[in-house]
# Entry
Amino acid sequence: QEQLVESGGGLVQPGGSLRLSCVGSGFIMREDYMHWYLQRPGKGLEWIGQIGSKPMYSDSVKGRFTISRDDSKNTLYLQMHNLELDDTGTYYCQRRDGLRGQGTQVTVSS
# Structure
């Protein structure tokens, strides 16, 4: 069964850092494009970035977030630095065809 499971969310102060993980099972992550999305409270999904041939990022996170992948662990990461209040929400990893995890909650608050 193909599955994605995110983890690593939590409560962090503005300016802080977090690293989110997304473990894939039932398929080989490096063979496909993988995305990160953010869903703010009461809002739709917002594309954060992707990794395939090379990482790409939305303007809102460029320079603050980094996407990487550990192929030995079939795991995708989202390293987030200099977090802002507006980064609060549920973060999802998603395969190009739409397979998505259950999400992990990030709350940026003082």
